[in-house]
Structure formats: C-alpha cells, structure tokens
C-alpha cells in the first residue's frame, strides 16, 4: 500500500530536505530520515543555528526557543513544523 501525498505535502518535504541539505552541507543521496543532532558529523551547534534559520526561511515560521532546543532530528523537525500547520 502506498501513501498518497498532495503536491503541497511533497513540496513541504522537499523544502525541509533542502533546508537540511544546505545547512548541514550534506552529500547528495543522504537518508534524511536518519539525521540526528550530534550523530550527523556536520550537525554541530553552529550548523544547528544555520538549520533553524534555513527552516524558518523555507516555511515562513518563527520557532519558539523550546522548539529550537527540541529539534534534534529530521523526523522531529516534521513534528515541530506540523504544530505550525505544515503538513507532510
């Protein structure tokens, strides 16, 4: 069974992947679902702040301090953005 997604959902997922790829300087083909803070070699504290800026810009949102601190993986980023009305 395949999951049907809308173009808006696909676009949101692409924008999130692009934000992670740019901020963390990821190689093409990386599995975004496995990305986690401090487990991904390029995801340190400086890259974390670059990622926050990239996500806020890509989705036109302002993350709360608690959300910035909680954003520790790609799946968690989807969850946090879901609270801002972004669907994946």
From TrEMBL:
<protein>
    <recommendedName>
        <fullName>Acyl carrier protein</fullName>
    </recommendedName>
</protein>
<dbReference type="InterPro" id="IPR036736">
    <property type="entry name" value="ACP-like_sf"/>
</dbReference>
């Amino acid at each position: 069974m395949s999951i049907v997604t809308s173009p808006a959902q696909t676009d949101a997922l692409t924008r999130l992947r692009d934000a992670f790829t740019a901020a963390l300087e990821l190689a093409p083909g990386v599995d975004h679902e496995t990305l986690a803070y401090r487990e991904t070699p390029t995801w340190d504290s400086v890259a974390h702040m670059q990622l926050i800026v990239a996500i806020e810009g890509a989705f036109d949102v302002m993350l709360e301090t608690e959300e910035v601190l909680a954003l520790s993986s790609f799946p968690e980023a989807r969850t946090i953005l879901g609270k801002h009305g972004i669907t994946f």
